[in-house]
Amino acid sequence: MAFSRLRGRAAQVPAPVLVLGGVVGLQGGAVVAVTVIPVAGIAGTVMLRLGLGALGLIALRRPALRGLDRRAVLLTVAVGLLLAAHHLCFYLAIHRLPLGVAVTLEFAGPLTVVLAGTQRRTDLLWALLAAAGVAGAAGVTSSGRISLIGVAAGLGAGACWAGYIVVFPQLASHRGRGDGLALATGCAALVTVPFWLASHPGRIFTPRALVLGAVVALLSDVLSYSLQSEALGRMPGSLFSILASTEPAAGALFGLVALGQRIGLWQWAGMLAVVAASIGATAARRRTLLDVPGKDEPLMGLLRYVREQRWVTPSVLLIVIGAFTLSAHGRGHSLFWAGILLCAAGVLTAVVGYLSQRPGRDKDEGGRPA
Predict the structure, then answer these.
(1) Is residue 158 classed exposed, middle or buried when 0-12, 13-18 and 19+ CB atoms within 10 A define those classes?
(2) Which of 177, 211, 233, 343 lies at a 20 to 30 A Cα distance from 364?
(3) What residues have CB less than 8 Å from 182, skipping those under 6 apart?
């Protein structure tokens, strides 16, 4: 089996190298995607990545459709919605912002999940550092023009990533990491079809778009997933997260070298601040849930519930960003339907999170959206 041979070769490589190889694959795929978007459009590029990526993952994993009960279908649809919304938002962000800036904004999502479940007062410093870093990377501290749509899209991708971190481990525990991701990627490709059909679908059927789209799918989905999935099974999740925290800086370097994207000093400082906050928060993280002392007041009870239930934060982020997008654009605008998708992903994340509460369940990290 192709997947077994690939895992056998990867087993000979140190796990940290595999994680960094996955980072290189993701950022390399994003660089190629930037060149595909002018040809195929944002929805077309996402369609190529998810469609071809789903074919590759299904060919590698060959997931069985038997045993797909109602819960497995619900989880697959939820992860598929999150993947589709993530890719649409992220590709819109890299179309309007430098790659390193877009990746930094996206990183705010998983970092929020980590900090939302903390019990350490010192982690407030990491949260403030991350917020300052996001503001600096977005260009708030500079005098240049800020692409609000690009910033909103980057933060929307981060919210989807946060939802993915919460929901995907439940699918992985039910169907396995590989099979679950293959099925969810296929579902995400189906979700993307209406967006693709509404935006000049014929543009992807050119030799350049098809070849480059296949490269994006190979680097971002098949190669990156295979490397990072192998690494996750051989190293602690905290170390994996620390190594993956290099993505914003890697994105900036790839954008500079491959795309000639130059960013300001404050944006570099912002990206490095987010990287430092992510590493610091991950290294200092405790696995115990927050225990708020004092009387059981309503506000404290609400705070405890939000901290303990990790699905609350990404669900609220998705719904708020989706609602903002809906209010800012009319029905004829493509972002209106992106807002609908974000709200739907938020609601599904909340439903799956609420229904899947199980005391003492494994806290395995969801990793990065493939």
Answers:
(1) buried
(2) 343
(3) 54, 57, 58, 60, 61, 63
Cα–Cα distance for residue pair 344/355, rounded to 1 Å? 16
Q: Find the largest Cα–Cα distance for the chain.
A: 66
For 98-113, what is each residue's pLDDT tens digit? Answer: 998 899 888 888 877 7
Token pair in block for residue 326: 């809906």
Q: List pLDDT tens digits, range 288-333.
A: 333 333 333 443 344 454 455 566 667 666 776 766 666 555 555 6
What separation in angstroms does the CA of 353 have from each of 166, 170, 287, 325, 358? 7, 9, 18, 24, 10
**Closest by Cα among 280, 235, 256 to 103:** 256
The Cα 171–Cα 76 span in angstroms is 7
Contact 345, 314 (CB under 8 A): no
| Cβ–Cβ < 8 Å for 354, 218 | no
Q: From residue 93, how far is each of 102, 104, 113, 216 by CA, in Å?
A: 6, 11, 21, 16
Rounded to 10 degrees, the C-alpha dihedral 17/18/21/25 comes to -170
CA 185 to each of CA 49, 56, 64, 119, 248: distance values in angstroms, whole numbers, following the listed order: 10, 10, 15, 34, 24
Query: Is there a contact between 242 and 249 (Cβ–Cβ < 8 Å)?
Result: no
> Cα–Cα distance between 21 and 85 in angstroms, integer?
25
The gap from C-alpha 231 to its chain's centroid, in whole angstroms, comes to 18
Half-sphere exposure of 354 (CA within 13 A, CB side): 8
What tokens does 125 get? 């410093």
Please tell me whether residue 168 adopts helix, strand or coil conformation: helix
Amino acid at 179: D
